[in-house]
Write a structure and sequence with these properties.
Order of helices and strands: HHHHHHEEEEEEEEHEEHHHH
Number of strands: 10
Largest sheet: 4 strands, mixed
Strand order of the largest sheet: 1-4-5-8
Distance between the termini: 28 Å
Radius of gyration: 21 Å
Strand content: 5-15%
Bound molecules: acetoacetyl-coenzyme A
Shape: globular
Helix content: 40-55%
Structural class: alpha+beta
């Protein structure tokens, strides 16, 4: 066992930290308040290689491992979790899904643009009546010979109005249940697509979340990913990696809040001394530090298993579950440590608390992670 990072890992971590502090921190409160999509910031992230970190360099990506991705996600998420969800969806759902399971033609056509941020992608699985119960897809993709015809509605789609391509999961053969589901690359400018208004959310407010309606959208056959009927497994396999991304986002939100608390507790005085000298506060900080360390180790373990081709379904669900739950707890305590200042926007912790909530919900709720873990340990 070796718990040290390589010099490359340290460099990536340092680069992401510097970038987040220099480029994402300014304006983050306003972007959150006004739901302003971080267009310029995402462009810079693409140029710096943060949007296709693990993509093979032959497709314009960084060719990095998942550990590097976790380290960068943590640093970006400390400062702006709206930027990091865009990064996570593009890297671990869209780029990874296409690179791992797509055809050569699909990879050549889409990966270079996705990896450099010249386009971003979205992952369309959830529906108005199929969230956790993802096999209950109502969106249909009917085989019409040389193309499929897609009809239905997807919702809660990250990058819904800003993505250029959608990975759409749809039911081709109802009789076959989940074995009749397919995944498609659908270009946003296809006729018949209507994008709903951007949701007005509790957290990650500057990221773009919409519903998308598909009405007789023609998708060429060559845009199907994998064999006929592979769509549900495609979604599940892709989400295994996605959950490492969201776990590291939750980790970053928690560690960002913790770092703000450390600083505040050493500056703020009450009853004649800095508040960290009161055990009520120092014990809260000790709990935070311990839980963040556990959360980070779980993320890195899942990433390491993925990089070493060891089944990581259970590990990624454990990381996602633990990190999300701790992010919610730690950010709530961070507001408490800051007292009244924690309740106003300028001190950042209230935003981190609002942002933490979604990590318990998307890419599989905490309850779904417990389902995956319990099935894995009890099989
Ligand atoms: N890898 C490969 N195959 C898998 C799999 C995995 N990880 N998990 C399940 N499967 C397969 C099963 O083996 C089964 O296939 P067979 O019949 O051939 O064996 C098939 O898929 C169906 O599996 P289950 O019987 O386990 O299905 P289920 O309905 O009982 O439960 C579930 C599945 C785990 C609950 C799944 O529905 C799930 O993960 N739900 C949560 C969905 C989710 O995470 N949504 C997130 C939306 S995307 C998002 O949030 C992105 C964003 O924008 C931020």
């Amino acid at each position: 066992m070796n718990f040290t990072f390589s010099s490359e890992h340290k460099l990536i971590q340092e680069t992401a930290k510097e970038f987040a502090n220099n480029e994402l921190l300014k304006g983050v409160i306003d972007r959150d308040e006004n739901k302003t999509f971080p267009k310029d910031q995402i462009k810079m992230m693409g140029e710096m290689g943060f949007l296709g970190m693990m993509v093979d360099p032959k497709y314009g990506g960084g060719g990095m491992d998942t550990i590097s991705y976790v380290l960068a996600m943590e640093e970006i998420s400390k400062i702006d979790a709206s930027c990091s969800v865009i990064m996570s969806v593009n890297n671990s759902l869209v780029c990874w899904g296409i690179e791992k399971f797509g055809s050569d033609a699909q990879k050549e056509k889409f990966l270079p643009k996705l990896a450099r941020g010249n386009m971003i992608g979205a992952f369309c699985l959830s529906e108005p009546e199929a969230g956790s119960d993802a096999t209950s897809q109502k969106t249909t993709a009917i085989d019409k010979g040389d193309h499929y015809l897609i009809n239905g509605t997807k919702n809660w789609i990250t990058n819904g109005s800003t993505a250029s391509i959608y990975l759409v999961i749809a039911q081709t053969d109802v009789e076959k249940g989940h074995k009749g589901i397919n995944a498609f690359i659908v270009e946003k400018d296809s006729a018949g697509i209507t994008v709903g208004p951007r949701e007005n959310k509790l957290g990650i407010r500057s990221s773009d979340t919409t519903s998308i309606m598909f009405s007789d959208v023609q998708v060429p056959k060559e845009n199907r990913i994998g064999e006929d009927g592979f769509g549900f497994k495609f979604a599940m396999k892709t989400l295994e990696g996605g959950r490492i991304g969201i776990a590291s986002q939750a980790l970053g939100i928690a560690s960002g809040a913790y770092e703000l608390c450390l600083k505040y507790a050493q500056e703020r005085k009450a009853f004649g001394k800095e508040i960290y000298k009161h055990q009520a506060i120092s014990f809260m900080l000790a709990d935070m530090a311990t839980e963040i360390d556990c959360a980070r180790l779980l993320c890195l373990k899942a990433a390491w298993q993925k990089d070493n081709n060891i089944n990581y379904a259970e590990a990624s669900s454990m990381a996602k579950l633990y990190c999300a739950e701790k992010a919610m707890k730690i950010t709530t305590d961070a507001v408490q440590i800051h007292g009244g200042y924690g309740f106003v926007k300028e001190y950042h912790v209230e935003r981190l608390m609002r942002d933490a909530k979604i990590t318990q919900i998307y890419e599989g709720t905490s309850e779904i992670q417990k389902l995956v873990i319990s099935r894995s340990i009890l099989k």
